[in-house]
Amino acid sequence: MVDETRKVDAGMTDSIRADVAIVGAGVIGCLIARELSVRRPDLDIVVVDRGGIGGGASRYSAGLDIPRGDSERVRRMAAYGQRYFAGTRCVLPMTVIAHRTRESDVRERYLEDAGSQQTLPVHRGLFDIPSGHIAWYGECAYTDVHAFAQQVAREVRSRVRIHEGVAVLGVEPRSDGIRLRLGTGRSVHAGRVVLAPGPWTGSPEWTTFIRPFGIRVKRVVALHLDRVPNEGDPAAVFDTEDAFLLPMHRRGHWLLSYTSEEWDVSPDRPGTGLTAADLAAGHRILEKYAPQLIASTVSGRVFCDAYSPDREPLVRSSPADPRVVFAGAANGSGYRLGPAIAAETTDLLEALSGADVEREHTA
């Protein structure tokens, strides 16, 4: 555990010293703080966020954990997350619907415990299984990601310093560490910096460090359906369209998430809210699977998230300075892949520390 006297003294000076500084207190940043502080309780860790805990994409995430991955690495990460969260979330029945020509693809991408069953075209109450399609039945889970991030932050506060409402104005490499210039006039001097900014990857303060990774930011849209879900209603995954219907029991309505193709947007630009085009895109999916729900689409949520070129989360040292590590660009899956991202980030930080020790021994 971090020495309390050291924490207080550091917080009262213009320069805050830390072993590791994490920029971003979304779900990924909070999970990294948890993982690192558990593995290395001797480290002094600081988390800095210009907003509040879980206040970015984490605040708007549907929090659905679908047991799948488009690559072997993402499937491993998804399975790790399932074990990590076991027994802590709301578990739901799940129906995955895809055209029968995609059967082998679906079987490859979904984790082994997702069973399968071919059905005839039938009406199954809330949604239809169209002709030529196959339904898989299994389980998924969901949680309130915003509340979860706050829970993790509350848990780690005894061993991690968290500075909310504090902007980072600059990331400056020095010979003996990395200096973060803060909007408060203070600075953080850290041996390592983890950038976990969510969709704020284009912020000029750190573009030098992460531009080579080719990250893009996309507008994300989900519709709220003004219909109360019944106990036992399944989540429906429309695999062909990369969309899903989620019964949000805690909020008392359904959510339709679908793929948007509006790229290179700024998370700081004032949002327009839902547009007629957003509604039309959602309605096209509902027309195929649940036309009776179209009239219930009266509201929704619009936000941004970061995506990597190969659709795998990024955990990498910056080519500009290996002491700066980027963690994120999880392609809309920051929550469900967050535990694995945190573990990989901690592995990388420990490897970097080991490399430093080796250099000192051979110098």
Structure commentary:
Pfam families: DAO. One of its GO terms (molecular function) is oxidoreductase activity. Keywords: Oxidoreductase. It comes from Nocardia uniformis. The protein has 363 residues and is of the alpha/beta class. It folds into 2 domains: 178 residues, FAD/NAD(P)-binding domain (3-Layer(bba) Sandwich); 139 residues, 2-Layer Sandwich (D-Amino Acid Oxidase, Chain A, domain 2). Helices cover 28% and strands 31% of the residues. The strands form 3 sheets. Strands 1, 2, 8, 9, 10, 11, 17 and 18 form an 8-stranded mixed beta sheet that branches. β13 and β14 form a beta hairpin. The C terminus is likely disordered.
Keywords:
single chain, 363 residues, alpha/beta, FAD/NAD(P)-binding domain, D-Amino Acid Oxidase, Chain A, domain 2, 2 domains, eight-stranded mixed β-sheet, disordered C terminus
